[in-house]
Amino acid sequence: MNIDSMDEKSSLATSSKVLAVVAEQKQKFNQSKWIKLNVGGKVFQTTIWTLLSKEPDSMLARMFSQDGAMMPSDQDESGAYLIDRSAHYFEPIINYLRHGQLIVDPNISLEGVLEEAKFYGLESLVSQLEAQIMQNNQSLDNQPLTRRDVIKALIQTSHITEIRFQGVNLAGADLRKLDFRNINFKYACMQRCNLSHANLTYCCLERTDLAYANLECAQLISVKGLCANMEGANLRGCNFEDPSGLRTNLEGVNLKGACLESSNMAAVNLRVANLKNANMKNCNLRSAVLAGADLERCNLSGSDLQEANLRGANLKDAELTLMVTPLHMAQAIR
Predict the structure, then answer these.
(1) What is the pLDDT of residues 291-330, one digit of tens each?
(2) What is the pLDDT of residues 186-243, one digit of tens each?
(3) Which residue intervals of 78-187 are DSSP H helices?
(4) Where are the beta strands (DSSP E) in the chain?
(5) Is the overall model pTM greater than 0.85, yes or no?
(6) Going by C-beta distance under 8 Å and a sequence separation of 6 or more, which residues neighbour residue 139?
(7) b/e per residue, 48-80, with b = 16+ CB within 10 A?
(8) What angle do CA 196, 201, 202 make, to 5 degrees?
(9) Rounded CA gap, 286 and 19, in Å?
(10) Which residues lie closer than 8 Å to 141 by C-beta, 6 or more apart?
């Protein structure tokens, strides 16, 4: 091999290296270049590197990649590339491409951003948005209904159609003075609801959770409250007596610590109910069934227990002063 041939090969190798360095520098320069995107009439400024680095296979990346995989769109008079999509939903997308974090303002629909992310082919963003939307929907499903939701259901349902709130979460709802006659609340969560002055006549409250609810002066005529939880509830001044003679059924109900003062509970079935520490002062309990009920430390002073069935009831430390009618042995108190 002669000297001239070796020099020629060395020169070619050096030229190739120089060209490679120049191409690399040129690519770096192009990727750092600022461009303008006109999305739905709003102009966004960003770098080619922002569009390429996070999602190299996306539509935006292919529009400005060196391999020319996709031709850029037309440009407006200012040189901005025109994209006929929503600017409202594009802003969270461009910010995601800038810093990799999904941040969406509360006034922007995640579903709208998701549709745009699918259009631009941003797969990693699509998966994040779908997961976030699913989580949000689950949170909404667990949220209790509000007074407005309940009133809407009442208005939209015919009076001849049965309304069922069975198993529904109504915890903490303001439901005072509403008419709930004949409605099914079985298994519903109504903890700390405000049902004062509400009409619950003929309602099904079986196994309903009404712990610490306010039912002051409510109409509870002939309700079916088998095994309902009313612990700590306020039932002061409620009316349970049905003029037609039907009994209100509260068998097995938990009224521990509840206030029933001055309530009309004539003929109510409270068999095996838990009434520990309950305030039943001045109640009308004529012909009520309290057989097997736990009335330990219950305040029954001033109440009318005429013909009430107290067989097997626990009256340990119960307050029985100032009774309207005296108890007698036929009622079989232990």
Answers:
(1) 999 999 999 999 999 999 999 999 999 998 877 676 654 4
(2) 999 999 999 999 999 999 999 999 999 999 999 999 999 999 999 999 999 999 999 9
(3) 87-99, 110-120, 123-142, 147-156
(4) 34-39, 42-47, 81-83
(5) no
(6) none
(7) bbbbbebbeebebbbbbbeeeeeeeeeeeeeeb
(8) 140
(9) 105
(10) none
